[in-house]
Protein 1
Amino acid sequence: MYLYKLLPEFLEYKKNGWAKNKTIREYDANLYQFFQYLFSVKKKKNKVTLSDIKLIDIEKYKSYLRTLSCPKTSIYWKNHEHLSTSTISIKTSNIKQFFRYYNLYHNRGVDSEKIEIPKYKSPEMTFVSDQEFQNLINSVEKVEVREDVKLRNKAFLYTVYTTWMRVSEVLNLRIDQNPKNWWEISISWKWDVIRTIYLNQKCKKYIDEYMKYRYWGKLIKKTNRIYKVSDKTDLVFVSMWDTTFGRKLSKQTICFMFQRYRKFMKTDKRITCHTLRHSFATKLLRGWTNIRVIQKLMWHQDIKTTERYTHVINSDLEREHIRVFGE
């Protein structure tokens, strides 16, 4: 059977395995790119079968990926000339999963166990201090002109900084999840598991002030015009611009927001939503919170993931030793 006819069966298998729609789209795009490469190399157009693919073809494909330029749609395209090793690893992993399925259920194709995924070094973990975070908040005041955008972005930054949530989880945060008790709300995490997060009073204050500029299910007057709130404005963080009012914020918008604030702060430190997530864990560790508690708050499945944060407090060890035992 030809490759393009095999892909739908594999994607259906992944859907039945509770894979998210975004993950399915990534599998689809990455495998389609691999198939197109095979069609051009083997010069068989769409008539390549599983038996035509050898292990060496996958190795050559990985070499081919290393020559590709970073797409301009990527937020990293100005910093990376070619595809990163982590991107190539993801694409290779998708191919390995594809062959693993056909090895297991049809006993066909390249042995997936022989497909090697490129290893890459994780980027150095960065975090922001309390002063750096305050500088980030101050930059919102200086950079943004509109009051409603200022309040929204401050509320967004405080929410990320004081919780463990990832950017996608914050952008999907909805008002009706627990509107009467904003400091303790439940969200749907991976595999639709419900998790509880906690917001402090300062974060709640910024969210309440921001919500005065927009309210779900109502008509909102802005710049002398009436806008009907869209169906998705039960989301907490939405676009405030006239032409896109009420729409969900994109990750690209958030990335651009951080880039502008970093430029104003004149810092070389890479500050992103995930940097603030690291800062959340670091702040807990420096407060000598039990690492098992941090693991639960961050929802790490493996304690080793949480232990990555312990290296950042090595500078505190000497001070604490002196505090307990003296000079």
Protein 2
Amino acid sequence: MRAMLDKLTSWVGLALAAVLLVAGGLLTWANAFVADQVDYQLGMQEITMPAEEAIAELPDADREALEPFVGSPLDTGAEAKAYADHYILAHMNASSDGRTYQEAPTPTRPPPTARPSPGCASRCSWATPCAGCCSTATRSPPSA
């Protein structure tokens, strides 16, 4: 009985080692693939991180997050995150008084409080202003 338990334990250990080796290889390949795709996709956009002058008036936290990447091509995930979180967001907040994208009105999307009346909603399209039945409101986009 003891010999059989030793063999079973050995085989289970060997199988576990093989599974972990295969998983490690696949994870290493996936990491390289994703890094390559991020570099490729961002490289196609030809975005350059903002220059020192462009970030000078940003809040300290945003400026400090962008300083390591000043003037370099945006081609890594870390650069894209810094650009989105500390450059685009800072400018969006400044231009919209801190409102989110969904809350900020645009020519085709009124503020969230402007909604058509129930009878009008069926006659209005999402991006087209309602023709008199709802004053100046437009229909809100379909819920996801």
